[in-house]
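Data card: per-record layout.
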Amino acid sequence: MIDVRDLVKRYRKADRNAVDGITFQVVPEETQVIAQLRTGNMHLAVIQDNKNYAVVRGAPNLEVTRSPRLGFEYININCQRPPFDKLEVRQAISWAIDRKEVVEVAYSGLGNMVAPIPPAMKDYALDPEQIPEFKPDLDRAKALLAQAGLPNGFKTEILTITGWPTLILGAQVVADQLRRVGIEAEIKQLEYGAWINDWRTYNFDMSMNATGGNADPDPLLYPRIHSKGANNNNWQDSEIDALLEEGKSILDQQKRIEHYQRVQRLLVQKVPQIWLGQPDLVEAMKKNVKGYVSHPTTFMNGLAGVWLES
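The structure for this 310-residue chain is written out next.
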């Protein structure tokens, strides 16, 4: 949480043209955001739809940055709800999904596939290109569905959030891919309040989701995956629970790296959720905005050093 009052105090200490305050605007339509940036009515914005990178980067009055982020997008699975309580079904979904296509379509190619630990944590991260389960195999997916007693597939639903372009497009790509193995997934868009209520109460089959990310494997994985954390996938696995607890006490860096790489390989095999991709962070600002540094969490911590050129 950014305390704007604290930011303003830091601005006033700077030997620059400090700003008097910050006004945050919620603008539902990104076309309006871009229009306000171009006319000078807005100083800075995070561009949510990566296809608009091509729109803003050529604007003469704007500086545009594009950088990696810690956060990523994924699919929560309600692992207690049939048929997702069967490992073979979750594995079939994973094998059916072409994550590269998600990156190309949903992020306009501006991003990367992501493993359970994203590339920004380079010491810990697995290379998504080298993960066998991230290479789509429709025949294997169909065979797994047959093993689960669902040779003709099944019908399901994917929740997503209204107004979040990369999640909506990602859901559409995933639904098309699942159809190839007989899984008919209806996309249900919800306003954020309704979505978060259904998500928190496990009132979903699958749900698109995103995180701002973390800078360490423990706060990234434990709250989301451990059965005594937030456990957003309604999933419990004693082996993973024990490994996540063990990871908290490992101080040797090399042992810690090896430990969390083992955790990732198991997570990819057990499929409590589907790790999709990591859209690049795109930010656009007026050229008189100085000192702003993009922060990989997308929480705009870089506002602490910003000033306006006269």
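Known properties of this structure: The domain at 72-279 is CATH 3.10.105.10 (Dipeptide-binding Protein; domain 3). The first strand starts at residue 44 and ends at 47.

See the next section for split statistics.
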